[in-house]
Amino acid sequence: MPIDKRRLLSYAAAGFAGLLDTGGVLAQSPAPAAPRGGQRFFANRPTIPHRVAKTTALFRVPPGGYPNGLATVPEGIWIAQQKISGSQRLLYDLPEPEDPSEVCWLVDRTGKLLKTVHTESRGTAGVAWDGKYLWTGADNNEVEGIFKTDLSGRTISRHQIPLGMPSNGGPCHGLLWQANKLWITAVRMNGILRVDPDSFEPEFYIPVNFPRSHDIAWDNGAIWVVVGSSNGANEKPEDYRGGLAKYDATTGRLLETVEFLPNSADPHGLTMVDGVLYGCDAGIHPGWPNNWSKTAGQVFRIDFV
Questions:
Q1: For residues 163 and 8, is the Cβ–Cβ distance under 8 A?
Q2: What is the pLDDT of residue 255?
Q3: Strand, helix or coil at 124?
Q4: Is the C-alpha dihedral spanning 198, 88, 218, 118 positive or negative?
Q5: Helix (H/G/I), strand (E/B), else coil: 282
Q6: SS3 of 242, please?
Q7: Does residue 4 form part of some domain?
Q8: Would 21 be classed as within a structural domain?
Q9: C-alpha to C-alpha distance for 241 and 214, rounded to whole angstroms
Q10: Which stretches within 193-250 are classed as H helix?
Q11: Looking at 1-15, 41-55, 99-113, which range is the least confident one?
Q12: Which residues form the domain of 126?
């Protein structure tokens, strides 16, 4: 049965786990009240497998802006540069950058810079590689959308995140390319949306029932998403806990949760390389002093303990 945008939006608003290709839906329990900090972060999910993880800083990204998105390729890792510009800079008490344009860096596994590609995205939070083009997601009050860019920096297309206003679909917090489909961490919907990259029609939606959601990574039929104990604005940095949630990419079912140990990196970008998760720390977080995290501007490895 065909699924129109109106029906998909109603499912998303109702908190359904996902939309099956047959047109059916798989119901999920209503979102619990937002957990608060520390060991209470996942306390209301006692039946879900839970682990803890530590982070190990590996290398600093090229200078300029904040790293806020990762994508794995055979040569290494694409890193999305984020700058805070326009009215959004007021949130972080930052001056307007002299040059607000942003880039993506391709680095090898040691952090050596291999290539730099300009993108028209602003406040970029999320990058994906489809084998030929880069996809970047904007998180900026004045510029929103998903940008498809070739390696010369030419914009091929720009789309708003579906199921919102045609001129502003809301911010992006993560991107993932898998099996010729584009997955988006859609902030307005607080969930992960799969779209057809050509038509940009929405196909599947997974609600992320945590206060914060960011970048996403593929893991053998499942999707990891960066989550946190709050959006940061109402919690001291030392009390905040970053973490991960793992969802079945077919049903939308929550499979596992992971909480980072105290003093770990503040996760923003996320990718998986040879079965190991890697993240990047943007160095900015709503409500925190800028560059408060000791791993600000670095790529780090995530190890389960």
A1: yes
A2: 97
A3: coil
A4: positive
A5: coil
A6: strand
A7: no
A8: no
A9: 14
A10: none
A11: 1-15
A12: 50-304
Tokens of 136: 């970047």
**Based on the structure, what is the number of domains in the chain?**
1
Domain membership of residue 176 (yes or no) is yes
Question: Residue 60's CB: how many other CB atoms inside 10 A?
Answer: 13
Domain membership flag for residue 75: yes
Distances (CA, A) of 222 to 2, 86, 166, 233, 254: 25, 36, 30, 30, 10
| Token pair in block for residue 272 | 């998986």
Neighbour-count burial of 176, counting CB atoms closer than 10 A to its CB (0-12 exposed, 13-18 middle, 19+ buried): buried
Residues 6+ apart with CB under 8 A from 129: 71, 73, 78, 135, 177
239 confidence band (pLDDT: 50, 70, 90): confident
Point out which residues pair with 56 in neighbouring strands: 301
Both structure tokens of 124: 């970029």
**DSSP secondary structure string, 33-83?**
PPP-SGGGTTTT-TTS-EEEEEEEEEEEPPSSSEEEEEEEETTEEEEEEE-
Amino acid residing at 71: A
CA torsion sign, 70 to 302 to 284 to 110?
Answer: negative
Q: State the Cα–Cα distance between residues 71 and 91, nearest whole angstrom.
A: 27
Nearest to 301 by CA among 152, 109, 131, 160: 109
The predicted model scores a pTM of: 0.87
CATH number of the domain bearing residue 143 = 2.120.10.30
| Three-point CA angle 87, 135, 275, nearest 5° | 115
Burial grade of 59 (CB within 10 A; 0-12, 13-18, 19 or more): middle
DSSP string, 180-203: TEEEEEETTTTEEEEE-TTT--EE
